[in-house]
Write a structure and sequence with these properties.
The protein contains 1 helix and 12 strands. By secondary structure, it is mainly beta. It has one domain. The strands form 3 sheets. Strands 6-5-8-2-11 form a 5-stranded antiparallel beta sheet, with no helix packed on it. This is PEP-CTERM protein-sorting domain-containing protein. It comes from Methylomonas koyamae. Keywords: Membrane, Transmembrane, Transmembrane helix.
Amino acid sequence: MASGKIRVINSATGLAAGAGSQQNSRASVDTAASLGDTFKLYNNDGTPYTSAGTSKLSVGIDGILEGTTDSAISLNISIGVYKPGYFDAFAAGEDPSALSIGYASTGFLSATDVLPEELSLDFNVAPDSSFEWYVSVFSTMNFEQADDEHIFGNVDLGHTISINFESPENTYFASASGLFPGSVAMAPVPLPPSFLMLGLGLASLVGISRRRS
Protein backbone atom coordinates (compact mmCIF):
# COMPACT_ATOMS: atom_id res chain seq x y z
CA MET A 1 0.00 0.00 0.00
CA ALA A 2 1.11 3.52 -0.69
CA SER A 3 -0.48 6.64 0.65
CA GLY A 4 -0.25 10.34 0.01
CA LYS A 5 -1.52 13.02 2.33
CA ILE A 6 -2.88 16.18 0.78
CA ARG A 7 -1.09 19.08 2.41
CA VAL A 8 -2.46 22.59 2.65
CA ILE A 9 -0.29 24.98 0.66
CA ASN A 10 -2.99 27.54 -0.01
CA SER A 11 -6.22 27.41 1.97
CA ALA A 12 -9.59 28.18 0.48
CA THR A 13 -10.65 30.55 3.24
CA GLY A 14 -10.44 33.46 0.81
CA LEU A 15 -13.50 32.05 -0.94
CA ALA A 16 -15.64 32.34 2.17
CA ALA A 17 -18.32 34.95 2.68
CA GLY A 18 -20.30 34.99 5.90
CA ALA A 19 -23.38 36.33 7.62
CA GLY A 20 -21.96 38.75 10.16
CA SER A 21 -23.98 40.98 12.46
CA GLN A 22 -26.67 41.92 9.94
CA GLN A 23 -30.25 41.06 10.77
CA ASN A 24 -32.46 38.70 8.78
CA SER A 25 -29.60 37.88 6.44
CA ARG A 26 -28.90 34.80 4.38
CA ALA A 27 -25.62 33.52 3.04
CA SER A 28 -24.30 30.49 1.22
CA VAL A 29 -20.64 29.50 1.16
CA ASP A 30 -19.14 26.95 -1.24
CA THR A 31 -15.55 25.69 -1.17
CA ALA A 32 -13.79 22.94 -3.06
CA ALA A 33 -10.47 21.15 -3.30
CA SER A 34 -9.29 18.54 -5.80
CA LEU A 35 -6.38 16.30 -6.72
CA GLY A 36 -5.57 14.37 -9.86
CA ASP A 37 -2.75 11.98 -10.70
CA THR A 38 -1.55 9.40 -13.20
CA PHE A 39 -0.42 5.92 -12.12
CA LYS A 40 1.44 3.36 -14.19
CA LEU A 41 1.67 -0.23 -12.91
CA TYR A 42 4.48 -2.70 -13.59
CA ASN A 43 5.06 -6.35 -12.83
CA ASN A 44 8.12 -7.11 -10.72
CA ASP A 45 10.07 -7.99 -13.88
CA GLY A 46 9.46 -4.50 -15.27
CA THR A 47 6.83 -5.43 -17.85
CA PRO A 48 3.56 -3.44 -17.96
CA TYR A 49 0.90 -4.86 -15.66
CA THR A 50 -2.22 -6.34 -17.25
CA SER A 51 -5.31 -6.21 -15.08
CA ALA A 52 -6.21 -9.57 -13.56
CA GLY A 53 -8.13 -8.42 -10.51
CA THR A 54 -9.16 -5.42 -8.48
CA SER A 55 -7.23 -2.77 -6.60
CA LYS A 56 -8.50 -0.34 -3.98
CA LEU A 57 -8.31 3.43 -4.17
CA SER A 58 -9.66 5.22 -1.11
CA VAL A 59 -10.10 8.68 0.37
CA GLY A 60 -10.18 9.43 4.09
CA ILE A 61 -11.27 12.65 5.81
CA ASP A 62 -10.93 13.40 9.51
CA GLY A 63 -11.61 17.07 10.21
CA ILE A 64 -13.91 19.69 11.69
CA LEU A 65 -17.49 20.12 10.49
CA GLU A 66 -19.51 22.23 12.90
CA GLY A 67 -21.93 25.16 13.15
CA THR A 68 -25.00 26.55 14.84
CA THR A 69 -28.46 25.09 14.37
CA ASP A 70 -29.15 27.61 11.60
CA SER A 71 -26.08 26.73 9.55
CA ALA A 72 -26.69 23.64 7.44
CA ILE A 73 -23.37 22.15 6.33
CA SER A 74 -22.89 19.48 3.70
CA LEU A 75 -19.71 17.74 2.60
CA ASN A 76 -19.16 15.50 -0.42
CA ILE A 77 -16.16 13.55 -1.70
CA SER A 78 -15.90 11.68 -4.99
CA ILE A 79 -13.39 9.52 -6.88
CA GLY A 80 -13.22 8.96 -10.62
CA VAL A 81 -10.85 6.52 -12.35
CA TYR A 82 -10.19 6.84 -16.07
CA LYS A 83 -8.23 5.40 -18.95
CA PRO A 84 -5.21 7.44 -20.11
CA GLY A 85 -6.23 10.62 -21.90
CA TYR A 86 -8.80 11.92 -19.42
CA PHE A 87 -6.82 15.00 -18.41
CA ASP A 88 -6.01 15.81 -22.04
CA ALA A 89 -9.67 15.50 -23.04
CA PHE A 90 -10.75 17.69 -20.14
CA ALA A 91 -8.18 20.36 -21.03
CA ALA A 92 -9.36 20.32 -24.64
CA GLY A 93 -13.00 20.76 -23.62
CA GLU A 94 -13.93 17.32 -24.94
CA ASP A 95 -16.31 14.84 -23.33
CA PRO A 96 -14.14 12.36 -21.35
CA SER A 97 -17.00 10.07 -20.28
CA ALA A 98 -15.97 7.31 -22.71
CA LEU A 99 -12.68 6.99 -20.79
CA SER A 100 -14.37 6.30 -17.45
CA ILE A 101 -13.42 3.12 -15.60
CA GLY A 102 -15.51 3.83 -12.53
CA TYR A 103 -16.86 6.51 -10.20
CA ALA A 104 -17.98 6.64 -6.56
CA SER A 105 -19.04 9.35 -4.11
CA THR A 106 -20.33 9.81 -0.57
CA GLY A 107 -21.41 12.70 1.62
CA PHE A 108 -22.17 13.93 5.12
CA LEU A 109 -24.72 16.46 6.41
CA SER A 110 -24.82 17.91 9.91
CA ALA A 111 -25.85 21.24 11.41
CA THR A 112 -24.04 21.16 14.73
CA ASP A 113 -21.70 18.17 15.00
CA VAL A 114 -18.03 17.56 14.49
CA LEU A 115 -17.42 14.62 12.17
CA PRO A 116 -18.04 11.66 14.53
CA GLU A 117 -15.45 9.51 12.76
CA GLU A 118 -13.29 9.48 9.70
CA LEU A 119 -15.36 9.78 6.55
CA SER A 120 -13.95 7.29 4.06
CA LEU A 121 -14.72 6.19 0.54
CA ASP A 122 -13.29 2.90 -0.74
CA PHE A 123 -13.35 2.32 -4.46
CA ASN A 124 -12.47 -1.04 -6.03
CA VAL A 125 -11.20 -0.79 -9.60
CA ALA A 126 -9.60 -3.12 -12.14
CA PRO A 127 -7.21 -0.78 -13.98
CA ASP A 128 -4.83 -1.70 -16.77
CA SER A 129 -1.14 -0.79 -16.67
CA SER A 130 -1.82 2.95 -16.80
CA PHE A 131 -4.77 4.95 -15.49
CA GLU A 132 -5.69 8.42 -14.29
CA TRP A 133 -7.76 9.34 -11.25
CA TYR A 134 -9.37 12.45 -9.89
CA VAL A 135 -10.61 13.18 -6.36
CA SER A 136 -12.76 16.16 -5.42
CA VAL A 137 -14.06 17.47 -2.09
CA PHE A 138 -16.91 19.98 -1.99
CA SER A 139 -18.63 21.66 0.94
CA THR A 140 -21.63 23.98 1.18
CA MET A 141 -22.82 26.01 4.16
CA ASN A 142 -26.22 27.70 4.13
CA PHE A 143 -27.12 30.32 6.74
CA GLU A 144 -30.37 31.97 7.77
CA GLN A 145 -29.98 34.64 10.43
CA ALA A 146 -32.79 35.91 12.64
CA ASP A 147 -32.89 39.25 14.48
CA ASP A 148 -29.93 39.84 16.80
CA GLU A 149 -28.55 36.38 16.15
CA HIS A 150 -24.93 35.57 15.39
CA ILE A 151 -24.33 32.31 13.57
CA PHE A 152 -21.23 30.58 12.34
CA GLY A 153 -20.08 27.52 10.48
CA ASN A 154 -16.67 25.94 10.20
CA VAL A 155 -15.34 23.30 7.82
CA ASP A 156 -11.63 22.65 8.39
CA LEU A 157 -10.06 19.70 6.61
CA GLY A 158 -6.54 21.07 6.37
CA HIS A 159 -3.88 18.32 6.54
CA THR A 160 -6.54 15.66 7.10
CA ILE A 161 -7.46 14.42 3.62
CA SER A 162 -5.57 11.25 2.70
CA ILE A 163 -5.44 9.23 -0.50
CA ASN A 164 -4.54 5.54 -0.38
CA PHE A 165 -3.90 3.09 -3.21
CA GLU A 166 -3.44 -0.66 -2.78
CA SER A 167 -1.58 -1.95 -5.81
CA PRO A 168 -1.97 -5.59 -6.92
CA GLU A 169 0.40 -8.21 -5.53
CA ASN A 170 3.80 -8.56 -7.20
CA THR A 171 3.60 -5.15 -8.80
CA TYR A 172 5.04 -1.70 -8.30
CA PHE A 173 3.83 1.61 -9.65
CA ALA A 174 4.96 5.03 -10.75
CA SER A 175 3.19 8.23 -9.70
CA ALA A 176 3.28 11.34 -11.87
CA SER A 177 2.82 13.65 -8.88
CA GLY A 178 5.49 12.10 -6.68
CA LEU A 179 3.19 12.41 -3.64
CA PHE A 180 3.10 8.69 -2.96
CA PRO A 181 5.98 7.19 -0.96
CA GLY A 182 7.12 3.85 -2.33
CA SER A 183 6.37 4.68 -5.95
CA VAL A 184 9.17 4.89 -8.50
CA ALA A 185 10.07 8.05 -10.39
CA MET A 186 7.91 8.86 -13.37
CA ALA A 187 8.25 11.58 -15.97
CA PRO A 188 5.82 14.40 -15.09
CA VAL A 189 2.56 14.40 -17.01
CA PRO A 190 1.38 17.95 -17.76
CA LEU A 191 -2.04 18.64 -16.27
CA PRO A 192 -4.44 21.40 -17.26
CA PRO A 193 -4.38 24.47 -15.00
CA SER A 194 -7.63 23.51 -13.30
CA PHE A 195 -5.93 20.40 -11.90
CA LEU A 196 -2.79 22.09 -10.61
CA MET A 197 -2.97 21.91 -6.87
CA LEU A 198 -2.48 25.41 -5.51
CA GLY A 199 -5.06 24.61 -2.84
CA LEU A 200 -4.83 20.98 -1.83
CA GLY A 201 -6.43 21.47 1.55
CA LEU A 202 -10.01 22.51 2.12
CA ALA A 203 -10.74 25.05 4.82
CA SER A 204 -13.67 27.40 5.18
CA LEU A 205 -14.44 29.81 7.96
CA VAL A 206 -17.51 31.92 8.58
CA GLY A 207 -18.31 34.06 11.61
CA ILE A 208 -16.33 33.97 14.82
CA SER A 209 -14.99 30.41 14.84
CA ARG A 210 -11.33 30.00 13.98
CA ARG A 211 -8.92 27.07 14.16
CA ARG A 212 -5.21 27.75 14.31
CA SER A 213 -2.82 25.26 12.75
